Amino acid sequence: MNELEVLEIARDAVFTLLKVVTPVLLVALFIGLIIGIFQALTQIQEMTLAFVPKIIGVFATIIILFPFMLNQMKTLTDGLFDKIANGG
Length: 88
Prior knowledge:
The protein is mainly α. The protein has helices at residues 3-42, 48-85. The protein starts with a helix and ends with a helix.
């Protein structure tokens, strides 16, 4: 295994990570933005008001997108196992 193959594996792993995590982070960002605007308009500065909707939204997103996430990770793992079986 040379440096090019290691970099290719690392690149694939990073792109898979980005594909899996981006939807969850975008949902958390959007919910945080909405809650922040609501808090600014109403001047309610309750800390739990920001966390509870984010947690619910993130869990719902993970449950809904779990098949997609699992498929992306399975594809990466299958590729890695194929490279190991073929000797690099």
